[in-house]
Amino acid sequence: MYYLSNVKKIDLSVSEDQLEQIGREMGLGLNRYELGLIKDYFKRLNRDPTDIELQSLAQAWSEHCCYKSSKNLLKRFILSDSSQGILLGEDAGIIDFNEEYAYAVAFESHNHPSNVEPYGGAATGIGGVVRDILCMGAKPIALIDSLFFGLPDRDKRSKFLFNGVISGIGDYGNRIGVPTVAGIIYFDEGYKNNCLVNAGCVGIVKKSQVVPSRSKEGNLFVLTGGKTGRDGIHGVTFASAELSERSEEDRSAVQLGNPILEEPLIHACLEVTDKGLVDGMKDLGGGGLSCAIGEMSFAAGCGACIEIEKVPLKEEGMHPWEILVSESQERMMLSISPDKVDEVLEIFDYWDVPATIIGRSLPGNLFIITYYGEKIYELELDFLINGIRYDREIKVREIKEEKEYFDEPKDYNSMFLSVLSSLNICSRESVIRRYDHEVGGRTILKPLNGGIKNPSHGDAAVIKPLEDSYKGLAISAAINPSFMGINPYKGALSAVDEVCRNLVSVGARPHSLADTLNFGNPEKPIVMGDFYESVRALGEIAKELKIPYASGNVSFYNERSQIEDSQIVPTPSLFGVGIVEDIRKVVTSDIKGENLLYLIGDTYEELGGSEYLKIIGKKGVVPSVDVDRLRRSIEAVLNGIKNEIIISAHDVSEGGIAVAVAEMCMGGGIGADLDISGIKGMRSDIKLFSESNTRWLVEVKKDDEKDLIRTFMECSVSIIRLGETRGDRLVIKDGNKDLLNVSLIEMYDTWSRMLEKIIL
Amino acid sequence: MSKKIGILTMEGTNCEYETFFAFKRLKGDAELVHIKQILGEVKNERSIGDYTCIIIPGGFSSGDYIRAGAIFASRLSKIKDEIIEFIEEDKLLGGICNGYQVLVDLGALPATKKTISDEKEAAFIINSSNKFECRPTLVKHVNNGKCLFTRKYKKDDVLLFPSAHGEGNIVFRDEETLNRLISNDQIVFRYVDDKGDYSGYPWNPNGSIFNIAGICNNKGNVFGLMPHPERVFYRYMHPDWTRNRDIDRGDGLLFFKSIIDYVERY
């Protein structure tokens, strides 16, 4: 009984106010209603709960763990019958690759920790998403990170967060040997004091070796990896509330990362998977042991009994509840049959990764925890895991979009250079160089395309996952927060359109999507309104395109401050995976020679949220998507690439045609002589800078021009000849009106140095 | 006589598979071997004498939190006598990136006087840019024939070997050491720009003196190289391969071919 001084019984037969007081003091993050449910539950059992039971319920019922505000809407729009091709959807989605193999996809947010401790928060975000892939039995082969910050040239905090996050990702990803191949860096005032760190990972696994995230009756729970400490306590309840000035004090909620434990953990987990020794595996992420064991058992329909004193600890004197909810990193829970456990322990010993038997799976539906023989915890898994769901109040905001009048620029050259050097368009090279993007030797298209002296942005990275197959995976991320800020519905449609454009640009057929939905406080109807519009759009367009969501994550409570209307820009960040039939056929964005340049798709006066109008200070109309046209265009561009008619392709997005052609020219070190008068019915600056969706620029040899035109006619997709690629200047006219005439050197200087100047 | 090539790993090594596959693609008799096997700490023991060539691949051994390669080197120094014997039997000991750092920390490179120097002749410091650098780099093969790892390359060949490291700036004990390396024909690769000239950052990604990218010992059978030939085995692994699709072979292939040829004749 000596040990039981570490476990407190809590009397819940008190008033509602006192109940709230208890919740606050224990850091549970539960509201009155939820505490009331718990009170009633224990009243029925006719006993008082222990602190460890309450803490465990608080983890399981947190927004982060149980999606209580989002689940109903996700079910309605995203998860409904779009599951074709998905073999399994657990910690990561498993999708068909070829006869023998599947690929795994996971995408997670790590926003709250990164705002308190950017280096550790971002690093452990990478570690966590890698383990999401690993626990499916898949080998992690590529990382993606989409990052959103306030303006680093205006506030020091944003600059600090930016530098910390970049270093954290680099130091962790580089050390574990998984290449960082794609992502987004976006700057907007709307992320001030609340940056977003979304990390994604892609893995490859033999279909016969996919490991489910569930236990099995009669099996042992083997806890492997790092020791358990006080770091990362209350991580999920912390992530399920708004950050405040006091959040700095919650540094203990941020986990510490150790990539050199993760690296052998990867080897050991893959070896036991390869030898068929594992029945179930789950990463210990949010909610720690509590959630991992609870969810593994619930999924298997059996109970669990854990001897919590067996968990290896980093420090002495930890209370059982702390052990149960700690989110210490680099830990993995395995469900192992008793006759295979010795072999498993031996393999982990070989890799110098600790592994300990801490309990077993039992029949029934009870989760029991003992502490030196005393039962300190007994909950029904139904109550723990199937907790609560809310239909939050939704208020869809009124969208005010209209074409606004502004003067045509007098000096196109200088306007163009301002757009080209804006924070969201300028070169990402200085960040890309800090991540190892080709460790593993599988990165066929790297984040930068073109000449090695003057590389430019590619549209999607391409990975060759298997040694003996030329089949590849293309990976790309997309979201335009400026569109989202004006019109969440059209913004979310545009994100899917852009992901598809990016994948198609390299010759990949869009195959699956992953979404991380970053929003403000869901208790605000306006936030839920934005959320509703976003998931509605994401669901509708993906369904029409028949592309499934393989993995997803919701991060609420992203607020810049505690004043009204301080939610971040709604940010459903996406990444997409495409299939490349033969990696030797992929194309890049850089201009290859003296050829012709064509514009694919239709241009409208859609400047809402464009980089151009942001400079001018107007809002305008956000681009919309014609899904049918998108589908036809995808086919046409893929045909053009497959038949080797298109030799370079680049999607048209931020900065419009002007920026897209500039990037192609810079990467190729070859200029262009263009006339945009083929685009009709609008002013020259609108033609140049409109960000209408479903458009590409393609380079084609003069001899192949007829084939190109035929390819697109067959799919009823419009194409316009813009001119020729040659020389060392970008020259653009609109009929007999001269617009741009800039040298490649000047463009490259302006574009390539900007980020470095501001950040480093 | 054994012909095996061992790819030596420990926790934090992370370029072992691509290095292994580079040999396998050329029908080399290669296997992965963990340092615990070499040190007899596990059941499936190996001796370095079992191999004709040992390659230490890239990565962050033990996290490289102290000094790049220091912990790996310290673990290897437990079998220093066996390593000396291995080198003196004219077998091949090579290191790429982190492996190069390990060999320098161990004293097997540049080793201008003894097989393994007792005092440090060289060390790696953090890149002159103060950052991790993942970028394509060009190196010129400047060796006059001493290095056994690069025999298939012609003198003055310029090759694209990508770099990815944070501590790649080699510094020497004194000027005399560098001069001895030059006069001994121990310099193997030097960073150059796209015109083939010796240039500064970013062509020299780390600030190494004399633009040194790779060196060998005085016998030519211990070799260290900072950039990664295994990352350019096939042309489609080059960063700019879509600009010229007529070539099949990556620039790194002949490095592995040179090793296999030597091992087969050994």
From TrEMBL, chain A:
Reaction it catalyzes: N(2)-formyl-N(1)-(5-phospho-beta-D-ribosyl)glycinamide + L-glutamine + ATP + H2O = 2-formamido-N(1)-(5-O-phospho-beta-D-ribosyl)acetamidine + L-glutamate + ADP + phosphate + H(+)
Complex formation: Monomer. Part of the FGAM synthase complex composed of 1 PurL, 1 PurQ and 2 PurS subunits.
Gene that specifies this protein: purL
Gene3D superfamilies: PurM-like C-terminal domain, PurM-like, N-terminal domain
Molecular function in Gene Ontology: ATP binding; magnesium ion binding; phosphoribosylformylglycinamidine synthase activity
Catalytic machinery residues: H64, H110
Name of the protein in its database record: Phosphoribosylformylglycinamidine synthase subunit PurL
Stretches assigned to the PurM-like N-terminal domain: 89-205, 458-580
Species of the source: Methanoliparum thermophilum
Binding annotation for Mg(2+) 1: E108, N553
UniProtKB/TrEMBL annotation, chain B:
Keyword Plastid: no
Keywords on record: ATP-binding, Cytoplasm, Glutamine amidotransferase, Hydrolase, Ligase, Nucleotide-binding, Purine biosynthesis
Listed InterPro entries: Class_I_gatase-like (IPR029062), PRibForGlyAmidine_synth_PurQ (IPR010075)
CDD domains hit by this protein: GATase1_FGAR_AT
Active site residues according to the UniProt entry: C97, H228, E230
Signal peptide span: none
Pathway: Purine metabolism; IMP biosynthesis via de novo pathway; 5-amino-1-(5-phospho-D-ribosyl)imidazole from N(2)-formyl-N(1)-(5-phospho-D-ribosyl)glycinamide: step 1/2
Catalytic activities: L-glutamine + H2O = L-glutamate + NH4(+); N(2)-formyl-N(1)-(5-phospho-beta-D-ribosyl)glycinamide + L-glutamine + ATP + H2O = 2-formamido-N(1)-(5-O-phospho-beta-D-ribosyl)acetamidine + L-glutamate + ADP + phosphate + H(+)
One GO-annotated biological process of the protein: 'de novo' IMP biosynthetic process
Pfam families assigned: GATase_5
Listed GO CC annotations: cytoplasm
EC number: 6.3.5.3, 3.5.1.2
Keyword Ligase in annotation: yes
Any one GO MF annotation of this record: glutaminase activity
UniProt subcellular location: Cytoplasm
Assembly: Part of the FGAM synthase complex composed of 1 PurL, 1 PurQ and 2 PurS subunits.
Known function: Part of the phosphoribosylformylglycinamidine synthase complex involved in the purines biosynthetic pathway. Catalyzes the ATP-dependent conversion of formylglycinamide ribonucleotide (FGAR) and glutamine to yield formylglycinamidine ribonucleotide (FGAM) and glutamate. The FGAM synthase complex is composed of three subunits. PurQ produces an ammonia molecule by converting glutamine to glutamate. PurL transfers the ammonia molecule to FGAR to form FGAM in an ATP-dependent manner.
Name of the protein this chain belongs to: Phosphoribosylformylglycinamidine synthase subunit PurQ
Source organism per UniProt: Methanoliparum thermophilum
